[in-house]
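Sequence and structure are no longer studied apart. As an example, we show below a sequence and the tokens encoding its fold:
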Amino acid sequence: IIDRPLRVRNLKVYDPLFFTSKLFDANLHKILPRIFSQKLPFQSEMPSKSCVYVSRSRLKGGTTGYANEEELVARLISAGVPVIYPEELDFREKLKVFFTYENIVGFPQSFFHLRNFLPRRNKSKIVYLLAGKETMNVDFLLMEKFGGYGSMYFECEMPEAVDVEKIETFQRVTIFDVEAAFRVVKALHDDW
């Protein structure tokens, strides 16, 4: 474990780092849905429910942890908004979320990459909540650019800097404005 800053004299960046944009090629968005459309047990074009919040609060580790997400989850559940935990769902259950809910809301996470496997006619929308500059990886923007899914983005960054206690199993930990996030999700739920 390196627990102090390092001075770097020479930094090498290998070619694979520059191939990210090729991953989200327009052909990929034509091929993946064809492969999976025959295997999906559900084919609804129009979701039947308003929105669901995709929580990371039960995730044991990863890139970004949200120290105050449990507070948001508790408020959403008490307001009648459905909440799911992707790590507790199998692959088919995860895909079914996109056929069930019109708006799938949450902070950026790998769960949202599943949108690439769905037929273009699927009408679900991803609604990203952002807790500052470091919470959105370029992969999500490339996915949107090539897939053209019509995702929405809402800023929920804290208006002022707040010290956050480190959680060992996450590379970084942040907090967000719970009230701002709650208003976004509740409005999507109620307006349907």
Q: What stands out?
A: The first strand starts at residue 49 and ends at 54. Residues 178-190 form the longest helix (13 residues). The mean pLDDT is 79. DSSP finds six helices and seven strands in the chain.
